[in-house]
Amino acid sequence: MEENNKKKIHKSILAAVLCTILVFLGFLGFFSAKWYIREFGDTGFDSVLYTLFSEMGGTDPQVIANYMKTAALPTAVCLLVAVLVIWNRFSFLEELFAKIKGGLYPFSNRASVVVSVVLSVCLLVNAAVTVDLPAYISYVSQQSTIYQDEYIDPAKADITFPEEKRNLIYIYLESMENSFMSQENGGALDHNPIPELTALAEEGENINFSHTDGIGGFYNMTGASWTIGAMVSQTSGIPLKVPIGVDRNEYGQDSFLPGATVLSDILDENGYYQALMVGSDANFGGRAPYYTQHGLDEVLDIFDAREVGIVPPGYYVFWGMEDFHLFDFAKQELPRIAAQEEPFAFTLLTVDTHRPNGYVCEKCVGLWGEQYENVMSCSSKQVYDFIEWLKQQDFYENTTVIIAGDHVTMDENYISRAVPEDYTRTVYNCFMNSAVDTANNKNRQFVAADMFPTTLAAMGCTIEGDRLGLGTNLFSEKPTLVEEMGYEAFDAQLAMTSDYYTRNFFFD
Prior knowledge:
This protein has a six-stranded mixed sheet with strand order 4-3-5-2-6-7, with helices on both faces. A two-stranded antiparallel ribbon has the order 1-8. The protein is 44% helix and 8% strand. With 508 residues, the protein is an alpha/beta fold. It is globular and about 80 Å long.
């Protein structure tokens, strides 16, 4: 009899432990999914996977703090309540709760298990729907044919550089979308927090490629809805997709799309000196590995800024250092880079406008009721001032400057408050000092992939067929794949599994 009681207690304990784990995973998934959408927006499950399994070094501590507050803490509280309410009738807990008259809830042991399983399943299903997992599963169960049908291998393409090669400065503006302009200028607001960027896009000598007949930009695409994905897509003409079965913890550090020929590979082959500058840890998200494994010569980030005195030793705010320090750093290093005999390509990435709400630096002025708009306004002015500085440099005359957002903002809380649901959100772009002009820059349908050949064209290169990767040279008369296929059909192909992608881009 005593032996039977021990077995009964052991089974009861095992059931309680397993049920606790199930419900813990359910609540953790539920609150984590809600947190992710609030923090990053509906960016697709592929970006969720990349975020979950990427190197977390350099992450803004506020992101981790927000997760602990809005996901981990509620999970712990709800789990405790569930244990008290559902499982107090397990035999090994009966004595503990005997003093509570009538118990907390009259579940039998078997009913407690059933309730635990049902609750866990419901929570996990809700989490999966929240982050678009069903759509992701649907797509990855299908094979894409877009690469076999449409991909143009840059390594085999006929790309001709001008006799006098032009320098390139490519400025990625974190989360800069056209929504932040006034409705009059093509934005979503009744005021204009980014007048300087608006003026640059409207300036007659500059070129803004637009989805409308006014200021506009390009659509988000699968595999380009977060920073490194966007940087990859804008420089390679393909999305960033890590196939199932690849160890995402290790991906990118030793080998980042080794089979893909990207912009920096092409520039390296043509004798360019190339540098990447960021105000955070350049290794975060695989940014430094991507560029250095594809021909980059120099990486400059917050650690280098500390060494040369841009910021004090140990300095760290938000994701690293403020953008005004970043622009000071660029002003210090660009003359040195430009003084070399080779043509140069300099890539700069800002960060102050990262969600949530951006970072309010000492130069921000509170003109607007929304903090995020004040930060965007500050960024707009700093970019404009940097451009004005560039124009005074000897190297500017032979330098093409491209300003582009990386992706639309992930700050869903701001978007839900300020941007109408029927507004079409697009990513900002402005081409300055381009070697070529076009009258075909309005009412275009395009994505980040099209920036790849368009960048080379702006530098004066001619591209046979006007396509590279999945991208189209927007200076040409050739329609983009989005214009040919339609955005939804094009993006659906990117979301599907592709053996071609895995075989040709992930392996040499």
